[in-house]
């Protein structure tokens, strides 16, 4: 004879499973950022099986580690002793390697016997369930790990719920990757076409400037052959540096369009090394943003060591690195500005500054260090990691962007055999640090 209580329990479990899958499907079909979707998936899993805490990891195949993405309750995040673990470590590692859900129950123990995680978070572990984020016959992309079921230990019904939700989440993750790659491919193709057109236009302008220089040279020769007119000489002396600077600017446009064209086509970028001081180049590159900064009540300040020794470098690469970092910093600080900024005074100065960007340059042990610090909203560890992997997209609400500015910084720094580091704290601003080794020969 069938036990009616057992049947009722099974019906409740099935309803729980159906509701969890329905919620996960709706969330994962939304158009929100996938990072937000992962947070929603974790919340769904915690609620569906009645857990007290939960963590979701994504797998980094290159480093063979499970990297922390979200934790619930969220206030535990700052107390976690580590941000990632080896992909074969602990219950989460076992679930990842075995491609199946794993449960564990633990007896109550005194506080002095707590492990590192329990001491750091203040949460004693009574029960654990870890489920790989995977679909059938596919490598897992991560792990969901839940801690402490409200009543008793985790059951087969809980495993069934998490297995289906994780499969739906994995499908969305893989789909999001395909969409992202498609978007990036489209962006690359578009950038390649635009840079090609810009290069052609700049080359035409370059030819016109070269003719102007020839005319200026002829005028100079003519003036030297006779008694020069003071007014004509004044105009010539004024126009000569103007032509030189304009030609130099066009050189940069042509060079930068070639850089973008090479990157969009997947060709390696090769710096043209020349010996020079970085200090003045860094200052002039950042100073071009001062007018924009003042208009938006953002102060740009400098701490540049002009006595730093020269090194072989590519001037265009340094210009683009600095300008991309400062431009990105302005976008970041803009997020923290009040909606209604006061009018800028008649002399172009704002009545009050609401944000600051600091551009620093110095040499530390044969390493040239460029730092751009801002008072913006800061960013999470996950965002920092995506930037350093070249996978970040603009997250600013007040200023759009493709994320390519920072990717270009990474590419150019790597071509100079340097590296990029990021220090940031949400609510406290961000510091980008570019380290370029001293080069004694081209």
Give your account of this protein's structure.
This protein is an alpha+beta fold and 442 residues long. It has 3 domains: 4-182, Beta-Lactamase, CATH 3.30.450.40; 185-264; 274-437, Histidine kinase-like ATPase, C-terminal domain (Heat Shock Protein 90, 2-Layer Sandwich). The protein is built from 11 helices and 13 strands. The chain has helices at 4-28, 34-49, 90-98, 116-121, 156-225, 230-264, 278-287, 290-295, 315-334, 381-388, 404-415; strands spanning 51-60, 65-72, 84-86, 102-105, 127-133, 142-149, 274-276, 298-304, 311-313, 355-364, 367-374, 419-425, 429-437. The chain has a 6-stranded antiparallel beta sheet with strand order 3-2-1-6-5-4, sandwiched between helices. Helix 1 (4-28) packs antiparallel against helix 2 and helix 9 (315-334) runs antiparallel to helix 11. The mean pLDDT is 79.
